[in-house]
Amino acid sequence: MNVSNEFSRYADHYGEHNIIQEKVADRLIGAIADAPKALLDIGCGHGAVTQRIHWSYTHLIAVDFAPRMLELHPKGKGIECIYGDFDNPELYAYLKEHRFDRIISASALQWSPDLAHTFGLIRSLGAPVSLAIFTAGTFRTLFETAGIPPLLRDAEVLEVMGETYFGARCETVRYSLSFENTREMFRYIKRSGVSGNRNILSYKEMKALMNNYPKNYLEFEVIFIES
Ligand SMILES: C[S@@+](CC[C@H](N)C(=O)[O-])C[C@H]1O[C@@H](n2cnc3c(N)ncnc32)[C@H](O)[C@@H]1O
């Protein structure tokens, strides 16, 4: 099953398992002070960004490659939901027909396989950005316990990229989320979308990890890139 199908598969439960992404969207949107009228939301999911926009706008294009997520996204005056892959130049050919006052992306771009390429495409749209991207500190202890390298990029690497591509201010923020037991913790990982739902451990390795994980909380790390 590919990643977009996996996001669609968990779309109906997404709202129950995305506490950290909700906090990230709060912070990202809360920092926008200039009430931009024409907006682009990249990797929009079920609409956490749109739901938080409290000012009036004329046009908001919301892009995602998981059809089920797009179905759940709010529809309404000025909102255009489009199916598209944020790594694909063809999407940007269409987006270039529009002018944006701000480009937003919350909790999605960590899954770009070539972020330099994707940042280049986003920059080509010529608008200021508000991007929140999960970084290597996410599930740090979990990966250390499993003896595998982190799945995501280091915050330091992303900071340099944010400055280089967008001349942006960058801030890295850590979050933690406590659980009553490891079973609940691992269910959260599976359904939250933060892992990209990639199964990188065998069943046996996962069992061992659940027994040996030394904390009752999960760690998250997010970089906010704002220009
Ligand atoms: C963790 S969710 C975040 C959704 C929403 N922005 C939020 O803040 O709750 C990540 C979203 O990115 C989308 N996504 C991941 N890779 C993508 C890609 N290459 N192109 C378009 N959307 C993508 C997924 O389908 C999913 O809806």
Question: Summary?
Answer:
This protein is α/β, with parallel strands linked by helices. Helices cover 40% and strands 21% of the residues. It has a single domain (3-140, 149-178, 218-226), classed as Vaccinia Virus protein VP39 (Rossmann fold).
Strand-pairing-aware structural class: alpha/beta
Rounded mean pLDDT score = 91
The biggest beta sheet reads:
7 strands, mixed
Order the strands across the largest sheet as they lie in space: 3-2-1-4-5-7-6
**Percent range of helical residues:** 25-40%
Task: From the 3D structure, determine the CATH topology.
Answer: Rossmann fold
Ligands, ions, cofactors: S-adenosylmethionine
Number of strands: 7
Shape: globular
Rg is 17 Å
User: What are the secondary-structure elements, in order, as H or E?
Assistant: HHHEHEHEHEHEHHEHHE
**First-to-last CA distance:** 36 Å
Number of H- or I-type helical stretches: 11
Annotated CATH homologous superfamily: Vaccinia Virus protein VP39
Q: Quote the beta fraction.
A: 15-25%
- CATH top level label: Alpha Beta
Low-confidence stretches: none
Per CATH, the architecture is: 3-Layer(aba) Sandwich
Count of distinct structural domains: 1
Write up what this structure looks like.
- With 227 residues, the protein is of the alpha/beta class.
- It has helices at 3-9, 11-14, 19-30, 48-52, 67-72, 89-95, 115-123, 140-146, 155-166, 182-192, 203-212; strands at residues 38-42, 59-64, 79-83, 102-106, 129-134, 169-178, 217-226.
- A seven-stranded mixed β-sheet has the order 3-2-1-4-5-7-6, sandwiched between helices.
- The chain is globular.
- The N and C termini lie far apart (36 Å).
- It binds S-adenosylmethionine.
- The site of S-adenosylmethionine (SAM) has 23 residues, from helix 1, helix 3, helix 4 and strand 2.
